[in-house]
Amino acid sequence: MKAVMITYNEVLSERLIHLLDELELRGFTRWNGVQGRGTTTGEPHMGNHIWPSLNGAMYVVVEDEQLDAFFDALSELDAQGRGLRAFVSPVERAI
Amino acid sequence: MNIFRLAVSRPIATSMVFIAIMVFGIYSYIRLPVDLFPEVDSPIISVITSYEGAGALEVERNVTEHLESVLGTTPELLEITSTSMDNVSVVTLEFNGGANMDEATNNVRDRLGQAEFLLPDDVNDPILQKFDASAIPVVIYSVTADESYPELEQIIDDYIVNPLNRISGVGDVSVTGAPSREVQVVLDPERLRAYNLDVPQIAQALQAENISSPAGRVDLGTESYNLRVNTEFRSVDDIGGVIVANYQGRQVTLDQVASIREGFADEDAISRVNGRQGLTFAVQKQTEANTVEVSERVMAQMPAIAESLPDDVEMTLIIDTSDFIVDAINNLSSVLFYAVVFVVLVVLIFLRQWRATIVIAATIPVSLIVGFIYLTLVGSTLNMISLSSLSIALGMVVDDAIVVLENIMQHIERGSTPREAAIHGTGEVGVAVVATTLTVVAVFLPLTFLEGQTGVWFGQLGAIVVVTVVTSTVAALTLTPMMGSLMMKPVDEKGRGPLKALARGIDKGLRGIEAVYRGALGVAVRFRKTTMLAALAVFGLSVALVPRVGTEFMPISDDGFVTVSGELETSRSLEYTSEVVTRLEAQITEEVPELKRLNSTSGTSGSMFGGVGGGKNEFQLRMELIDQDDRERSVFEVADQVRGIMAGTPEIVTSTVTAGNSGGAGSAQPVAVEIRGFNLEQTTALARDLAEHMEGIEGTRDVNLSRGESRPEFEIIFDRERLSDFGLTSAQVAQVVRGNIAGQTATIFRRDGDEYDVVLRYAEGERSSLEQVREMTVNTPSGARVRLEDLGEIKEFMVPPNIERIDRERMLTVSAGIEGRPLNLVMEDVREWVDAQNLPPQIAITYGGDFQEQQESFQDLFLILALSLILVYLVMAGQFESLKEPFVIMFSIPFAFTGVILALLITNTPLSVIGLIGAIILVGIVVKNAIVLIDYIKLLQGRGQPIFEAIVDGSVSRLRPVLMTTLTTILAMIPLALEIGEGAELWKPMAISVIGGLSFSTVVTLIIVPVLYGMFERNAKTETGGMT
């Protein structure tokens, strides 16, 4: 099992859910309206007057064989230029 | 969650809220009554007391002074003035602006009760009169007749008044000018002497024989009957049969000593319409009724009424108040319409998208309709002030939506999805939008604190603008992003067709302007000190121009009416006056081609709306001109011609020609110098000198003295010893003489439910020379007869026809109209002369009229201006969490005033109260631009841009919204500035001030404010958009 941590521009929320549905991935955990900024050039998303936009964050755990398709789909979504980052890490135990 | 996030994520809920507002607004609009002006509780109460047969001096001494001393202690009283003239005393009480008038009326009534025993016995009870806006007649008609004239009053009663009273909404129909019928008992002095009778005796006999009184009950068996004594006259002949004396055993009946006839009381006034003598009747509405509807219903009834009248009776409409209202409302509605068109065009040009235009235009109905809801909730009406206020607010209600949507579109152009752009775009400018609205509120809210006349006008303006602008901000933060997220899409500039080409052209032009602005700002930011010095020089120059701007109270508009009040030599009879007026009418009708209608009243100087008194030598002419579009000359030019006609008529001693009105405000003459002092001769002489000097001052018209020419009066001076020898008192003799000449009302004759006075009097031929007066006899208690000339002598005196007082001091006013020269300059000349006079200590001079009103109003308004400036600073300091930035932003205000001064000078408009209001409004509007600039510059700084780069980039990126909001505000005012029709023209000076001030200050703001910000913030650390 792999865990995928996704932070994304809030506007992608609905498209992300749609994407999960298409890949028949049921489980996810989501935080709406989180702040953050990119490591190099990424625009800050602070939800304030100066940087009004906000991010969302999503934690999805997938089976190893599902990962590639999922990750490709995420890259495709990122290519639209709305701002999306995904980090994959192994899941060692789960209940 | 932010309000705009919520709105964007729940578009249906948002729509429903606004639809609910619209529905409620439309409901309010339908129920709103229409009227000309907001309801005013006038702080003035007049006490009118008639004292038949007394001259001005006696009225002053016996009535006015007593009333003044009693009424002078009324609480909340501001000023007490009075006029004493022949037969009538008018005491006018002016209360403080905020006084409760119901309470004041009760207080006055209580005090009048105390005054009663101080007044002479034959004084009629004082009448209280309050000005009530709903008492202004809805329509006034005149009725003329030839052979039916004697029965005219009856005809009007039966055929006109009764049917009209049945119409719903009609409160009262009052007929004026009707000759009142009376039964005249014309006595023959010879015969009276023969039977040893005098007037009081006969009066007593008539009273005793004309009674109806209950005498108790009589029980007859089981029935009970009322018993009554009734000797009331059943016909005029009955009166003649009354036995008035027993003379040597013979009964003397009244018809033996007098002839009895039905006739008309002496007329006090003759009114004529288009040359024919007639009466007028006025229809008043019930307080809560709608003027326009009542007028329509009355008009609908009129043809049927006209049909029913005898052939020679003709009705002419003199005034239809609803005409003004309908015209004014229509005009203002078209002003509103033009404003909407202009605003929509500006948005379309700048944003080049139908969708964007629709999104922004959507805020217009929403905001305006809330204005209607407000009017309904406070129980006001749809009137000239509220409609003008709406059109003034119109330019501002789209501003917030423009700023928001413009930013949303920039985000879309940079590639965001509409939904994302809506949230981000609104978020970026949300603070600025709220701040700008708060500053506008800070300026308009204090207007609602104004009192008096200016309070009526501008209180509603303030309230409506606050309500609509706050609503527009709410809409801009919810409705605009919501609609934007659903409707907006990137501008497609690539398509073909002329429209697309035009859009590209416009965009190219705007980019060009932006490039020029960027260049200019770059230079200015580099040479900051030079730029600031240049700006200060411009401001200093404009301050130097201030003395050249004239001032006035209220602008005068061409409403097509010319009024003349004039006076012939004193002691002229009514017939003579009427004859002169007839000639004048003919001359005016011939020489003034623009004349539509002319009516006159001879024998009074009072107005149609219930004037009081006036000598028989006075007259009033009222001319109505044809529509403004159909004539070339203005009402002022016509008035000048009429002045020429008056000057060319030798019989006229003084005349005042007034043209146009100042929209119901201030009926006083512009220049009024009040001379206070007890000595009549001294003050009159000074007034004459002043009047003569005033005529020589440039720009004055119709110089007038309020105290009429003194006229001769005869006075009987009794020899008290002789009186006492004969066992008589002055009062007894006075009563006899008064009965002989003025007449004595003995009793009342009733017929068919009407009552007629029975008046005893000598035949006219027996009381028309001094000789005959001297020959009049008085019966002494011993039964002897003594002639008046044996009791004293008759002397001639000169007395003024009227005596005015202010604060219980005698006063007279020298007044003048002005034309072609501002009021302040004329007043300077007047003051110069007054100051040069060596006044005795018992004479004091004060200034009244428009000048005083203007001074008071200006004082109030300057206070409001100061208050607004402070409030605006407070709001911005709070908003920006900074003490320095608001200061920078407020630097745009002085340049707005520079613009106002220049605009007034260029258009040659004097600064009036209305213009000054424009200047105050500007405070709120001009800082909006600066706020938008500074806020965005700070935002860019916060995102890490170096200060000067942020200044230039931020300013350039805000150029379009600043230009758009400025243009919409200016263009919304243009219909007002161009004087399109009645009702709008009053606001012209304000529109000129705002347009001038706003255009000038915007140009300056775009350069000065960023430069100044640079100077102040160069070294300051700004907060970055860190983790908050």
UniProtKB/TrEMBL annotation, chain A:
<dbReference type="Pfam" id="PF00543">
    <property type="entry name" value="P-II"/>
</dbReference>
<dbReference type="InterPro" id="IPR015867">
    <property type="entry name" value="N-reg_PII/ATP_PRibTrfase_C"/>
</dbReference>
<protein>
    <submittedName>
        <fullName>Uncharacterized protein</fullName>
    </submittedName>
</protein>
<dbReference type="InterPro" id="IPR011322">
    <property type="entry name" value="N-reg_PII-like_a/b"/>
</dbReference>
<dbReference type="InterPro" id="IPR002187">
    <property type="entry name" value="N-reg_PII"/>
</dbReference>
<dbReference type="GO" id="GO:0030234">
    <property type="term" value="F:enzyme regulator activity"/>
</dbReference>
<dbReference type="GO" id="GO:0006808">
    <property type="term" value="P:regulation of nitrogen utilization"/>
</dbReference>
From TrEMBL, chain B:
<feature type="transmembrane region" description="Helical">
    <location>
        <begin position="990"/>
        <end position="1013"/>
    </location>
</feature>
<feature type="transmembrane region" description="Helical">
    <location>
        <begin position="861"/>
        <end position="880"/>
    </location>
</feature>
<keyword id="KW-0812">Transmembrane</keyword>
<keyword id="KW-0472">Membrane</keyword>
<feature type="transmembrane region" description="Helical">
    <location>
        <begin position="429"/>
        <end position="450"/>
    </location>
</feature>
<feature type="transmembrane region" description="Helical">
    <location>
        <begin position="12"/>
        <end position="30"/>
    </location>
</feature>
<protein>
    <submittedName>
        <fullName>Efflux RND transporter permease subunit</fullName>
    </submittedName>
</protein>
<feature type="transmembrane region" description="Helical">
    <location>
        <begin position="913"/>
        <end position="937"/>
    </location>
</feature>
<feature type="transmembrane region" description="Helical">
    <location>
        <begin position="456"/>
        <end position="479"/>
    </location>
</feature>
<feature type="transmembrane region" description="Helical">
    <location>
        <begin position="384"/>
        <end position="408"/>
    </location>
</feature>
<dbReference type="InterPro" id="IPR001036">
    <property type="entry name" value="Acrflvin-R"/>
</dbReference>
<dbReference type="GO" id="GO:0042910">
    <property type="term" value="F:xenobiotic transmembrane transporter activity"/>
</dbReference>
<feature type="transmembrane region" description="Helical">
    <location>
        <begin position="332"/>
        <end position="351"/>
    </location>
</feature>
<dbReference type="GO" id="GO:0005886">
    <property type="term" value="C:plasma membrane"/>
</dbReference>
<feature type="transmembrane region" description="Helical">
    <location>
        <begin position="887"/>
        <end position="907"/>
    </location>
</feature>
<dbReference type="Pfam" id="PF00873">
    <property type="entry name" value="ACR_tran"/>
</dbReference>
<dbReference type="InterPro" id="IPR027463">
    <property type="entry name" value="AcrB_DN_DC_subdom"/>
</dbReference>
<feature type="transmembrane region" description="Helical">
    <location>
        <begin position="531"/>
        <end position="550"/>
    </location>
</feature>
<keyword id="KW-1133">Transmembrane helix</keyword>
<feature type="transmembrane region" description="Helical">
    <location>
        <begin position="958"/>
        <end position="978"/>
    </location>
</feature>
<feature type="transmembrane region" description="Helical">
    <location>
        <begin position="358"/>
        <end position="378"/>
    </location>
</feature>
